Amino acid sequence: MSGSIDTVLRVTSTPDDSSPPTKKRRRSTPADVTGLVPTGLRVSAALAWRFLMIIAALYVLIWLAGYFSQIVVPVAIALLLAALMAPGVERLVTWGVPRGVSALIVMIVGIAIVGGLLTFVIITFSNGLPDLQQQVADSLKQIQDWLNKGPLHIGADQLKNFVNNIIESIQENQAAITQGAITTAATIGEILTGLLLTIFVLIFFLYDGPGIWRFLMRGVPSRVRERVDVAGRRGFGALVSYVRATAAVALVDAVGIGVGLAIVGVPLVIPLSALVFLSAFVPIIGAVLAGTVAVLITLVANGFIQALIVLAIVIAVMQLEGHVLQPWLLGRAVRLHPLAVVLAIAAGLVAAGIAGALLAVPLLAVLNAGVKSLVHDENVEPEDVDVLHQDEEDIPDGERDTKATWETP
């Protein structure tokens, strides 16, 4: 009985060989839908992710520059000073003076000029400060009389209460003011440290600048090393031209505004002229701010009519700078649109304060010359580029030499 049951089970569990085999479905290869995407969308997507990668890289570079700002800023300032002093070193070398001695002489002369100018400004400002204080006191007295007896009819008690409120506010915020003084002291220490680092780096830039550049070029791939070398030399040449032209423009601004202030009889003419000279290294905005300070001091010390005269002088000097000096002195070597200059200064000011505003335009000039060289310079040997005496004809002009087109080849 049991044997028959096993036989029945085996027969029941035996598959039916006559049933057709199950066919496995093969996954079909997905169709290429690239052709279905509009060309404009594909181009936009390709540009978008490349743009995002560039922005990310720039963000990382800016973040690193900000993190190491105590090193980056002194090195950048030393590079600016090297661009200003390098022609003097090369001139002494051509006269047979050893390079080390030439760099030392130029450094000593430069420090003596800057130190002497600052010392003269400080002494002159200290000597003229008492007279300015007396003139300010007289002007404040006139303003007080006008507020009291003029159309506003502000009483003496109200003015006294206003002054007392200011004094009480200062006393209440004494802790914050003290903390600000401590922060200022720490900032002065950082400035002194950065100054020493700037001088140290500047010595090496003047003594062995070409050797440092050759060392950096070793890290560039050999197939593009020559193009990068030429672009770097073009960029430094643009920096040399920029610093030279900016120094000349700053000198003209300082002399023009200083003579005008002296004619009007404004106190502290020399310190104000020095302020104009130093601030002119921040193009467009710097001279405007220095001129505003001069107008305000004239308004307080001399009166409204004299302030209007000084304002007219400042505007005339700014017009001379913008329409004659900068186009003539800067030329095509560092040709930048005024809107690009203003936006670069604003971006530098937001990103790194005064140092960013000072270094934004030189950086833009270097990038402008370097990118033009990479795009348009062909069959140019690095040795053919004279970075200290670049002629206008030697610099590639993108507007004239470009072969770019919007047409599909």
What does this entry look like structurally?
By secondary structure, this protein is mainly alpha-helical. Among the domains are: 55-127 and 158-209, no CATH class; 234-378, no CATH class. It is built from twelve helices and no strands.
The ordered string of helix (H) and strand (E) elements is HHHHHHHHHHHH
Spatial separation of the terminal alpha carbons: 91 Å
Number of helices: 12
Structural class: mainly alpha
Largest sheet: none
Helix content: over 70%
Characterize the overall form.
globular
How many strand segments?
0
Radius of gyration computed on alpha carbons: 35 Å
Task: Name the beta content range.
Answer: under 5%
Report the uncertain regions: 399-409
* Arithmetic mean pLDDT: 76
Short key terms for the protein model shown above:
409 residues, 0% strand, mainly alpha
What's the SSE blueprint?
Blueprint: H1 2-13, H2 39-67, H3 69-94, H4 99-149, H5 156-172, H6 174-217, H7 222-264, H8 269-279, H9 285-301, H10 304-330, H11 338-376, H12 398-401
Brief account:
With about 400 residues, the protein is mostly helical. It has 12 helices and no strands. The chain is globular and about 90 Å long.
